[in-house]
Write a structure and sequence with these properties.
single chain; 434 residues; alpha+beta; Arc Repressor Mutant, subunit A; 3 domains; four-stranded antiparallel beta sheet; 4 strands; 63% helix; 7% strand; flat; disordered N terminus; transcription regulation
Length: 434
């Protein structure tokens, strides 16, 4: 795969998120300290570093790469190993197609697997007669001259299983920490750009309105009654309206930092008054204001002030959604009770709907309207909640827990758990270890 190849929609490139030179320096230091080779590849198994990075490979791997088909075979193996590592959310130890021991540690950002750390090119035992036979068999499609390859085996490091696991975990933690920091900077830059776009669009809107209306007719942007009306819309529409207020207030501040701070503070105060008029508990909203207003007066960046206010608006909308609890339909209670009793079984929408004497279609519709998620997603949530309690007991193996909550396969259970919690069951257990 060529690095200049068009990217798929939403595909993240590591080079967009973090300084490649910094990663290279970390890997070089790791290699110098441990004697172990390390590389970072993208989702297709291709190194993110320049071609000269091949010199960092061991002699054995350089020979394999020089053979026709060798490079493609290695990249395909790295791609497969990266996917496995991402599936389980932790380092994955494997034997490469050429016979060496390597390990893959996933780099995951925003739930998306964006790359893999490949480390190793080692042996875990002294070569014996069977090893040489197997090595020849594994590489016979690449070459029939094994003298140089066998000679290169003598230069390979022999490491213990504990060394493999420790070094794999070290690289996994360090690289993901750096990537997370890079991703946060990337997201912030993108949000700044979005706020600038909204601001410039608002300038054009104001120019157009000013041409059509006398200044004396202008009203304040912050109309509490109108805000209440807009908050009764769905979240997307309410968010768009409030983002328009942020852009409009920024325009009215005319690039004056003190005025912008005052206007954004006024917006948050007005929102809190609106919430009070609606009749909701004020504590969570006042907490949002305290945090946001403090940050607004700490920064001198006008883009940053807009971003802080936008995040506060998001927090308001989340709290409003959480407060919008509807009276529970008795049919929903019948279905959730049935799920709570039978979640370890192979549940179906039909069986759950039948518990309330409803058709599957109607049951699914009212269930989602009431609880905000499909019936089978609720089943998954119940299973994950039950498994979290079991994970607190160190005597239960992951496979046993998977079976107790309705999964015959620990790998699939791990994938579902990670989707809901953002970490694997093993990581959850480590974090909550008593």
């Amino acid at each position: 795969m060529d690095h200049n190849e068009p990217r798929k929609p939403n595909q993240k490139r590591l080079s967009d998120l973090v300084d490649i030179k910094t990663l290279q320096e970390i890997l070089d230091a790791f290699t110098t300290t441990t004697g172990l080779m390390a590389n970072i590849v993208d989702g297709e198994g291709v190194s993110i570093f320049p071609r000269k990075g091949i010199k960092k490979c061991c002699k054995f791997c350089r020979i394999i790469y020089s053979l026709e088909g060798g490079k493609n075979r290695c990249q395909a193996a790295y791609k497969r190993a990266g996917k496995q590592a991402a599936l389980f959310g932790e380092p994955y130890i494997f034997r490469c197609p050429s016979g060496l021991i390597e390990w893959a540690a996933p780099i995951v950002l925003g739930g998306e697997h964006v790359g893999t750390i490949i480390c190793g090119q080692v042996l875990m035992w002294e070569p014996e007669e069977f090893f040489w036979i197997e090595l020849r068999k594994m590489n016979q499609t690449l070459t029939d001259d094994f003298e140089e390859l066998f000679e290169a085996v003598g230069e390979l490091a022999i490491v213990t299983g504990n060394q493999v696991q420790a070094s794999a975990y070290l690289l996994y933690v360090v690289a993901n920490y750096i990537m997370k920091a890079g991703w946060e900077n990337f997201e912030q830059s993108r949000e700044f750009a979005r706020q600038r776009t909204l601001y410039h669009a608002e300038i054009e809107n104001h120019k157009s309105r000013e041409e059509q209306a006398d200044k004396s007719d202008r009203r304040s942007l912050l109309d509490e009654d109108e805000i209440i009306v807009q908050l009764q819309q769905n979240r997307k529409k309410a968010k768009a309206y409030l983002e328009g207020l942020i852009s409009g207030l920024r325009y009215e501040a005319h690039q004056n930092l003190a005025q912008l701070r005052a206007k954004m503070t006024e917006l948050l105060v007005v929102l809190s008054r609106v919430v009070n008029r609606i009749g909701l508990a004020m504590a969570p909203f006042l907490h949002i204001n305290d945090q946001a207003i403090g940050q607004i007066y700490q920064t001198t960046s006008q883009e940053n002030i807009s971003v802080i206010t936008s995040k506060a608006v998001d927090a308001y909308l989340e709290q409003l959604e959480a407060a919008a609890v509807k009276p529970e339909n008795p049919n929903i209670t019948l279905m959730t009770d049935y799920i709570d009793k039978h979640y370890p079984n192979n549940l179906t929408v039909e069986a759950i709907a039948d518990a309330a004497c409803l058709s599957p279609g109607y049951a699914g519709r009212i269930f989602k309207e009431q609880l905000g998620l499909p019936i089978m997603d609720y089943v998954l949530k119940v299973r994950i909640d039950k498994s979290k309690k079991l994970l607190l007991n160190p005597h239960y193996q992951i496979q046993a827990i998977a079976e107790k909550v309705g999964y015959g396969d620990a790998g699939y259970f791990t994938k579902v758990f990670r989707k809901f919690e953002g970490i694997t069951p093993t990581q959850f257990r480590k974090i909550h270890k008593r």
